[in-house]
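I hope you will forgive my troubling you with a question about protein structure. I am sending you one protein, given as its amino acid sequence and as whole-number tokens for its backbone shapes. Thank you for your consideration; the sequence and its tokens are set out here:
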Amino acid sequence: MMSGFESPAGGIWRKGVFIVTLACACLGWSLDALSDAAEVSLARQYGDSYLPLMVMERSKLIEKHAQKLGLGTVKVNWKAVSGGAAANDALLSGNLDFVSGGVGPLLQAWSATRGRIRGVAALNTMPLLLNTNNPGVKTIRDFTDKDKIAVPAVRVSMQAVVLRMAAAKEFGEKNFDRLDRLTVTMTQADATAALLSGAAGVTAHFANSPFQFQQLEDSKVRTVLNSYDVLGGPATFGVVWTTGKFREENPVLYKAVLDALAEAVEIINSDKQAAARLYVELARSKLPVGFVHRILTNPQVGYSLAPLNTLKLAQFMYKVGQIKAEPRSWKDYFFPEVHELPGS
């Protein structure tokens, strides 16, 4: 088993706070005098991957840090979205200021807007598991036209991109899309139900937490592929991103959101049992607290602001034509406030 990456945000994050403050001073901004927006809208998706955002919402951490930075009362709106593509649509239309999702959708938005959209920070390091109920499938080479592989979004979700990377390794680089014809777009919940029941012809699901671990409770389901094996180690799944326009026009509010995210990560890492209880409550989940706690303490699962192993994914997407801009560093598609973190 690969060892997860998990580090408290506190000591490292203080460098980021200093950098933001220094940047404001260099640009002639006064944190007290800036006229930031009095309202901010954020999106989160479903699953414990987005637990830091759930903690931010529950504990009103953005409101707390906005007050601390002198912005007064800030109205914070939270909206749920179904996937990275929907998140990008909402961001580009101006209906949301910050969105969350997998690394793949962030990279597509970054490339399509020529860098006007970039990442704010990572949320976690989590494996993505390709699970199957087909006893004849031992590796991805065993999939046939009789199989259907559910992913959050065909070709563009992080799961779909990792599957393409795995196919390139298995069948040769020119055949990176060999398994695309077997993939179908489904929500995590629907795909899990289909995999466990055998409905809709779904024989595999490239899932994320907690759905992938729920599936493995069924003796008929087993893991065919772990994203960490494809990416060469622990890797970020969930990230938060926004537009350069919002960051430039609202530097203090941007900082408040980032400070709130850092505190949420610290809260989760300081007490995983309490975090598990909080997840069950906020997600209105039927999962036992003990089950969620086992996920949060899994050595492959961690919460951190530092993006890990994202550049490999980005460079592959450029190589196969999924993004038009070629990234030279992970810092190309993340805003500077996190550049001091040990990312990759």
In short: The longest helix spans residues 251-270.
